Amino acid sequence: MNTEKDFSPLTPNIVRALNDKLYEKRKVAALEIEKLVREFVAQSNSTQIRHVIQTLASEFALSQHPHSRKGGLIGLAACSIALGKDSGLYLKELIEPVLTCFNDSDSRLRYYACEALYNIVKVARGAVLPHFNLLFDGLSKLAADPDPNVKSGSELLDRLLKDIVTESNKFDLVAFVPLLRERIYSNNQYARQFIISWILVLESVPDIHLLDYLPEILDGLFQILGDNSKEIRRMCEMVLGEFLKEIKKTPSSVKFAEMANILVIHCQVADETKMTNDLIQLTSMTWMREFIQLSGRVLLPYSSGILTAVLPCLSYDDRKKSTKEAASACNHSLMKLITPEDDEEEEEEEEGDKTATGSPPHGDRPKAEGDSNDLLNASQESVALSNISFFTQTSADQPHVSLNLDGIVQVLDRHLHDSSTGMMTRIAVLKWLYHLYIKTPRKMFRHTDSLFPMLLKTLSDESDEVILKDLEVLAEIASSPAGQTGDLSGSCDGAEHRLELTVPATAAGAKPGHHTPGGGSRAADSSPSTPSMNSYFYKFMINLLKRFSLERKLLENRGAFIIRQLCLLLHAENIFHSMADILLKEEDLKFASTMVQTLNTILLTSAELFQLRNQLKDLHTQESCALFCCLYRSWCHNPVATVSLCFLTQNYRHAYDLIQKFGGLEVSVDFLMEVDKLVQLIESPIFTYLRLQLLDVENNPYLIKALYGLLMLLPQSQAFQLLSHRLRCVPNPELMRTVDESTYMESKQQAAAKRPSHAPMDYRELLEHFDRVQSKHLEVRHQRSGRATDLSDRKLM
Question: What pLDDT, on a 0 to 100 scale, did the predictor assign at position 784?
Answer without folding.
Answer: 73
